[in-house]
Structures are given as structure tokens and as C-alpha cells.
Specification:
By secondary structure, this protein is mainly alpha-helical. The chain has two domains: 406 residues, no CATH class; 38 residues, no CATH class. It contains 17 helices and five strands. One of its GO terms (cellular component) is Golgi apparatus.
């Protein structure tokens, strides 16, 4: 068991290793470093500005709530904008037969009484003025929900960018870039929406039943200080910088992914489909959760709850959909990248369930009313639905390509990325790549792959008999041909001799009987057989090896190691 100090040291070491890994990934290239700091600065500045906007909207809602609580207005009612440029007070949804909608006095632009409007400046807010303020209060609350979603989205974008650098992930990089496109478009849309609400406020309320601007210079401060100049400018500049750095990082990560392992072109095609699926999956998950949360909050706390029917059923459906989003994203990511067929069945079943629920909810009058009167929520819902459909379709395409070797490709890529050495790029051009490591080894170390008969050591000192044998073998080795199926009488193993070895240690040798007067080895004796066998198995059929005792053969050393003699070839008769 480790002591407390040892465990603390181990934790500190692991923590330092993680910090070192993060630092190495951020400083991998100058583009990764610039991308990280631009994303961090962009997130901090936009979150601060979005927080200021949220606080200003909260202040305006507080002013309106104080006015509404001071007056006496009906507990039930829904204020909507009539197509004919007027505000209407309805007891139910306008699409329902029992809605009982009536135009609020002083809000109809066609029949407005200017004198009455001017007289309201010195009087407390009237009933009709308070009814018109219900619409503004509900609209600004929607703007607060938009601020919260946008603020969270900026943080989510930074986390995607950080994950893209830390994991060198192309899906996170693509999702972050697509998110910057959407958030820049939202900033422009919200500026236009804010001006539209201001114009309606001036037309229906200030110049209508109230005759007084309760918010003062709030609109001008909101647009000039928090929307028009900083937010739009920063979003555009941030989008351009992010696009430039994303293209640079894509070239680096794509080169490491597609060239490092050396997979086929078919695997590259499948991997690109998986990348596109991963991008759609991450974006669809965020937009689905965001749109679901916005609808639940509005239906539970807004004025719509006064006229909504079956609200508890809608809450249960949307809460179930929101709870299924996270498992849906995880299953989609794992099942496709690892080709896990059972998990893919669960993922695709959840995709169908989410699509059916998202389509069936449009049959709800409450949902349709919110969808038609809240443009930001409508955009979020449409984007979420389109991404869910695209994810489901791409999932089917990726399932068709199962079994092409994608898990092995990703596993090898992850192992190379996690290794502590530079990546190795494999070339398929043999002329440019040169010999393989095995071929190079066979060329550089060809003696290791040579036949056993050729591995003869000529430098080790030996006894006179061994020198005679090696002399005969050295004459035969240069003329050795390649024999496909040699069939010798018996095959002796070529062994490297040492200084302490001798003919007596040869286990393949026949038994030698010693006497007080050792005879001289005969031509047909053991030693002659040894020499003849060695020369027979080593010689070429086309070029016969000179035999011992022939006229052309040199003088050989015969006899035992203890009594060697040099002379002519002895006769076959016993001496």
C-alpha cells in the first residue's frame, strides 16, 4: 500500500503530465497556438458582452413587472399582435374557436385617437396600457432566454475548439467552425429583431394607450453599446479568424490522419463520412437540447401557461426528449466509429424516436403558437430538425460501409497519435520509397540468410586434421551451386569450432577404438569416409571434386591428431 506522501506525489505527477500534454498540444505549431488564444479571447469577450445584454434585459423586465403588479389586469389572457397592426387580448390561443380575442383600445394604428394618447402622459397607466405592456414583457423575457442560450453557446464553442486542439480532432474542428457561422448569423438576426421590437413598442405602446416611454434611453443604449458595434464586429472578425485558422489546422490534422497510417482510398472515404456524421451529431445534440429547454421554460413560466392545455403532457414529452439527447450523441459517436452493430441499432432507434416526437409535436396548438410568434425558437427548432434528419441519414450510410476496416484504422491512428515520437509516413511508391526494412536487412546482413554450408570460419585456429578438412571445404565452397533437393547419405551440421574442440567431440563420428600401437588410418577408414562425405555433399555434379589419393590431388595429412603424417595416398589394403 502506498503512503499518503506517495499517493500525493503520484497525483501531482499525473497532474503535471496532463498539463504538459495540454501545453504540448497547444504549442504544437504556431497555428494551434493562435487558434487557441483567439478562441479563448473570443469566448471571454463575447460572454462578457452577452452577460451585459442579459443584465440590461433583466433590468427592463423588472421595470415592466413593477408596472404590471401595480395595476389590476385579468389573471387570464394572452396578448398577441394582430395581422392588421394592432394588439389583441385573447382568452385562449388565437387558433382555437373559443379564443374570444378583442383589440386593445389605442393600439389599432388605423383608429388611434391622438388626443387621448397625449393625455395619458400625466395619468397613471390605464388598464389598456397595462394590457399592452404584457406583450412587451413577454417579448423581453424571450430575449432573456435568447441571451442565456447564446452565452452558453459561446462557452460550448470554446470547449469544442479546445477539444479539437487537445485531441487533434477533425469533427470538433468542423463543429466549432459551423457553430461560428451560426452564431454570427444569430448576431445579425438579433440586431434586426431588436430594432423591429423597438418600432412595435413605439407604435403600439408609446404612441398608443400609454403615451409614455417607460424605458427611456434603454433601447438606444442596448443597440449602440451591446449589439450594433461590439457584438456584430467581434462576431464577424472572430468568424474570419476562426475560418483562417481552421483551414490551417485542417491541413495539419488531415495530413496526419490520412497519410500517417497508409490506409486505402476506400477507408478515407468512409472516414470522411464518419467525420461529417460526427459534426452533425454534435451540433444536433446542442440545438435539440437548447430548443427543448427554451420551450419548456416558456411554457412553464410565460404567459402562455395561462391558456395552455395538456401542459403536463407536453412537459413530460420534452423532458424525455432532452434526457435522450446525451445518450443519443454518445451512442452515435461510439457505434459508428467502432462499428458496434448492437449499439448502432439502439442509436438508430433513438434517432427515429426523436424524429417522430419532433414531427408529432407540431400537432400541438401550443407548440405551433410559440413556433409562429418566436422567430429565434423557430430557427433553433428548424436547425435541430434538419441536423437530426441528416444525422439519421448519414448513420444509415455509415452502417452500409461497416466491415471496411475503419475501427482498425482509427485504432492505429490513435496509437500513433498517443506515441511519444514523430509520426511515420508510409509511401506506396517503391521506386521512391526504396527497399522495405526486411529487404534492407536481407541485403545488409545477407550472411545470416546464406545456406549453412557456406558459413565456414577460416580464421579460428584448429588442429592439423581440422586444417586439412577446412582446406578441402574451402576448395569446394566457391563452386557451390543451388541444390533444390539434395539427398546425401547423411548430412553433417556445420558448426563453428572453438579452440577446445577436436575430432573426438564430434557426435556424428563413428566410434574410434584405441590401442597401444594405433594403426594408420586407411583410405577406406573413418577419416577417409569423413573427407569423402564432406566433399561429396559439397561438390558440384558438373565439376567433380578431386579425390584423396588421386594423382591430381595434393598431399593430405592423414592419421590421428596425436600422430599426423604427410604422404601419398595409401592403398585400399590394410597396413
Amino acid at each position: 500500500m502506498l503512503g499518503k506522501s506517495s499517493r500525493r506525489l503520484l497525483k501531482d505527477t499525473l497532474r503535471f503530465a496532463k498539463i504538459k500534454l495540454v501545453y504540448s498540444r497547444i504549442t504544437l505549431t504556431k497555428w494551434t497556438t493562435l487558434y487557441f488564444f483567439v478562441a479563448l479571447l473570443y469566448c471571454i469577450v463575447l460572454v462578457v458582452l452577452q452577460g451585459i445584454t442579459l443584465s440590461e434585459n433583466t433590468r427592463a423586465v423588472g421595470i415592466l413587472d413593477g408596472l404590471l403588479q401595480s395595476g389590476h389586469i385579468p389573471s387570464k389572457g394572452l396578448v398577441v399582435i394582430k395581422i392588421g397592426n394592432a394588439l389583441e387580448m385573447c382568452r385562449d390561443l388565437p387558433s382555437q374557436p373559443d379564443s374570444d380575442c378583442s383589440v386593445i383600445d389605442g393600439t389599432d394604428l388605423n383608429t388611434r385617437n391622438t388626443l387621448t394618447t397625449l393625455q395619458l402622459e400625466t395619468e397613471p397607466p390605464s388598464k389598456h396600457c397595462l394590457q399592452s405592456l404584457i406583450w412587451l414583457d413577454d417579448t423581453l423575457r424571450d430575449s432573456m432566454r435568447e441571451d442565456i442560450v447564446t452565452l452558453i453557446f459561446h462557452i460550448w464553442l470554446f470547449l469544442l475548439s479546445f477539444a479539437a486542439i487537445l485531441n487533434e480532432s477533425l469533427p470538433h474542428l468542423g463543429a466549432a467552425l459551423a457553430g461560428h457561422v451560426l452564431v454570427t448569423a444569430w448576431a445579425g438576426y438579433r440586431l434586426r429583431s431588436s430594432r423591429s421590437v423597438q418600432n412595435l413598442y413605439n407604435a403600439f405602446i408609446v404612441q398608443g394607450p400609454c403615451g409614455t416611454d417607460f424605458l427611456g434611453d434603454w433601447w438606444s443604449l442596448r443597440q449602440s453599446h451591446t449589439w450594433q458595434i461590439p457584438v456584430i464586429t467581434l462576431n464577424v472578425v472572430g468568424f474570419l479568424l476562426t475560418t483562417f485558422f481552421s483551414v490551417r489546422l485542417y491541413k495539419v490534422y488531415a495530413a496526419q490522419t490520412f497519410k500517417r497510417v497508409g490506409a486505402s482510398r476506400q477507408i478515407h472515404t468512409v472516414y470522411k463520412l464518419v467525420l461529417l456524421l460526427s459534426v452533425c451529431l454534435q451540433l444536433a445534440g446542442f440545438f435539440a437540447v437548447a430548443s427543448t429547454g427554451m420551450w419548456i421554460d416558456k411554457a412553464s413560466t410565460g404567459v402562455i401557461k395561462r391558456v395552455a392545455k395538456h401542459l403536463n403532457l407536453y412537459r413530460a414529452v420534452f423532458c424525455t426528449m432532452a434526457a435522450l439527447e446525451l445518450p443519443w450523441v454518445i451512442l452515435g459517436w461510439r457505434s459508428v466509429r467502432k462499428e458496434q452493430r448492437r449499439q448502432f441499432i439502439v442509436f438508430w432507434s433513438l434517432s427515429l424516436l426523436l424524429l417522430i416526437a419532433a414531427s408529432a409535436i407540431f400537432a400541438s396548438p401550443v407548440y405551433i403558437f410559440i413556433f409562429q410568434n418566436w422567430p429565434f425558437f423557430a430557427n433553433m427548432t428548424i436547425v435541430s430538425y434538419v441536423l437530426t434528419v441528416a444525422t439519421t441519414a448519414l448513420g444509415i450510410v455509415c452502417r452500409i460501409h461497416f466491415g471496411r476496416g475503419l475501427p482498425e484504422f482509427l485504432k492505429e491512428k490513435d496509437e500513433l497519435e498517443g506515441a511519444d515520437f514523430a509520426p511515420v509516413y508510409i509511401s506506396f511508391d517503391k521506386e521512391k520509397a526504396g527497399p522495405s526494412p526486411v529487404e534492407k536487412r536481407s541485403v545488409d546482413q545477407g550472411a545470416d540468410f546464406a545456406p549453412l554450408e557456406k558459413r565456414v570460419n577460416f580464421d579460428i585456429p584448429s588442429s592439423p586434421v581440422e586444417e586439412s578438412i577446412e582446406h578441402v571445404e574451402s576448395l569446394a565452397v566457391p563452386h557451390l551451386p543451388y541444390l533444390k533437393s539434395p539427398e546425401p547419405t547423411y548430412q553433417s551440421q556445420s558448426r563453428q569450432r572453438t579452440e577446445t574442440s577436436s575430432v573426438y567431440s564430434d557426435i556424428m563420428r563413428d566410434t574410434i577404438k584405441l590401442s597401444s600401437t594405433p594403426p594408420v588410418a586407411q583410405a577406406g577408414g573413418v577419416l577417409a569416409d569423413r573427407i569423402s562425405i564432406s566433399t561429396t555433399t559439397s561438390s558440384s555434379p558438373s565439376e567433380p571434386t578431386p579425390k584423396i589419393g588421386s594423382p591430381s590431388s595434393p598431399k593430405s595429412r592423414i592419421g590421428l591428431p596425436s600422430n599426423p603424417k604427410i604422404g601419398r595416398s595409401p592403398s585400399k589394403s590394410s597396413i
